[in-house]
Amino acid sequence: MRAAYGAVFGSLGLLLKAAALPFFLSLAIVGLSLTTQLNAFLSLVLTFAGFVPYTLFGVAWHRLTLLGPGEATPIIFPSWHRRHWRFLSYVASMTGAIYLVSLPFIIVGTRIKESGAQGPALLFILLAAVAIPLMPYVMMRISFVFPAAAVDEKYSLANAWAHTKGQGFRLLATLFVTALPMLAVIWAISSLLGMLLLPDIVTSTQDADMSPESAFRQAIADNSAAFFIAQLALAAVNYVVMALMVSAISIAFRLSTGWVPAAAPPPVARP
Asked: Which of 164, 135, 138, 159 is nearest to 148 (CA)?
């Protein structure tokens, strides 16, 4: 935890460079999702578009943590390389896997809620109690593919599973403790935003018989300045959290695998 905080808050200027483009891309995607009437296709497109800012930032910050500023100083407008495609494929694959695992629980939970059956409900709760901690555990066991991809290492999911043997819950606890202070800041900002918008949402729903979605959009329009400032603050804190998580995973990857940067090739003798 201390090393991750040192890596992030000791390099705030580099953090601003690494997060600049992803930050504004994230805001644009959030703005589109809130101001556009989305169908299933557009929602899917925006979901995948949201992986791009994280990939740009994640690759840059993994590289900075592992290679140092001398070899991997972030730039405001980074180029897209093969390592980004590999990183993005891991992000998309893991997100898809989480969705597929969660989908049966969502379907069964909805049907149980509609039927009110007690026996299946207890079984569902038991299965969810097992699955909910298991999914983050599995994600931690394979998380080393991200720093490896960022520094162009030939590294597989099997390698990650082997190197994190006996470390899954420890990694999970480390990330949770590392993120906790910043999550408290996010909670505070979200609570403030809720206090600003909730009265307007309730009033809009009661007075105009609006749907919750329409009331929410109307409340945003009526409090656009406060909402915009809150979104800026949330996005900024989010990138600090991501930097802390990326630093923690990179440091764990380096310590667990013994990884060191490849030695630079000797200089070519001039004739």
From this structure: 159
